[in-house]
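One-letter codes give the sequence; the fold follows as tokens. Both lines appear below.
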Amino acid sequence: MRNQIRDARRVVVKLGSNLFFDGSGQLALGRISSLIGDIARAHLAGRQVIVVSSGAVALGENAIKTSQAKLPASSLVQKQALAAIGQSRLMNLYEREFATYGITPAQVLLIEEDFSNQTRYLNLRNTLLTRRDMRVIPVINENDTVSTTELEATDRSVSFGDNDQLSALVMSKLEAQVLILLSDVDGLYSVNPRENPDAQFIPDVHDITPDIEALAGNKSARGRGGMSTKLNAARIAMSSMGMAIIANGMKEGVLARVLSGETEGTLFAAKSDSQ
């Protein structure tokens, strides 16, 4: 049941790229401030919150647009450069907003080998758990400037997939109870609700079957993931005996409602865990 989320002591919250901008392409400072505020309050209430944040490439592109002619992120090298530009701006947002609550964020940049290599994984785990003891909030992103798998558009088989898979790996490896994936969709639907007004919302999923997988649509416009990568992340969460929720981070107060156990978004949990 969703009321189990109220008692979860360790949660991973993933913020998608689209949350950082409004419909006109301007930085959505009010929304980000509200989301970080909910994360901060959960942390101050005693939860161990780990943030996985997209947005570096998008923020880098936004910065370039404000200073010179538009430079489309069309090539891999350009995307890597934009990630380098945007990552400092991304962390500046977190530092500024968390400072309001007297909280220090800690940047963690990862590549896929940090999980597949045992020594590097143990070092990562020890570092994250030590930062927990210091009462700081880790803000994790893929290191796009040295790892190109997430930026590649042709083969995502080994990619973190817009940080969705990364967030699920962090959740499973650190034994978190809940993974919360926030993007610009309310959750899983029977068909794409933007294309079909008769789309039916699916509040609970107990098993990710081929029929459920078939409901995944295309990736988002700004981010590199989509419903397919979120379903993969939910599968990892469920296989590690945890829960995952896909919810709409555009909605005011959504994270606080999810953490309080309210019905928000699509919950992915094995049937024995949801009863």
Q: What stands out?
A: The chain has one domain: 3-274. The mean pLDDT is 86.
